[in-house]
Amino acid sequence: MKTKIIYLLMACILLVSCQNLNRPSGKMTRVERVVSGQTIEIADRSAAVPVLEPIRLIGIQAPDIRQKPWGEEARIELEKLTLGQEVLLEFDVQEKDRFNRLLAYVWFGGKLINEYMVKEGFALAEPDFPNTKYMERLINAQERARLMGLGIWNPDQPMRQTPAQFRRQIGNRE
Question: What is the pLDDT of residue 3?
Fold first, then answer.
């Protein structure tokens, strides 16, 4: 009987310690503005005058804001989820992108917002090497959205070009 209790206690300790490993950590901050379906802004209060700092969600590619109707829908959904909310920014290997935006996974209410945007068909999962901590989750979320026909995967009105293809096409016209 004593042996069973010891094994049970060891199993409980192991479960609790494993759960703590999966808990995200990072920086708590308030979302001040939503720029697009993949970019939010926070106030950098370290300066004398607070400045809005862009945060690019890692591992997703939302439709370009000019891609009708998906770009605006993605921005609106991200705004509903995060605007004015205290969110947790979790960082990965690379700190900033080529546009000098901070790169982060955004958590709110225990939900990985990057994953939610893909799972509901508001964005594509996009490998963002070397930032791959949640890539498997994002790919699985995309497969779910595709199979369910959600958002950009809606068979009645699918998104026909990736955001990168769309931007290249627009760039060629201008």
Answer: 61
Give the ranges where the chain is alpha helix by DSSP (H). 2-21, 70-82, 113-119, 135-148, 163-173
Q: Give the chain's domain count.
A: 1
Task: Give the position of tokens 């498997």.
Answer: 136
Backbone phi and psi for residue 36, each to the nearest 5 degrees, phi listed first: -155, -170
Q: Running DSSP on this structure, what letter comes out for residue 96?
A: B
Indicate the pairing of strand 86-90 with strand 39-44. unpaired
pTM for the model: 0.83
Cα 157 to the center of its chain, rounded Å: 24
Q: How far is it, in rounded angstroms, from Cα 49 to Cα 27?
A: 20
The answer to whether residue 1 is domain-embedded is no
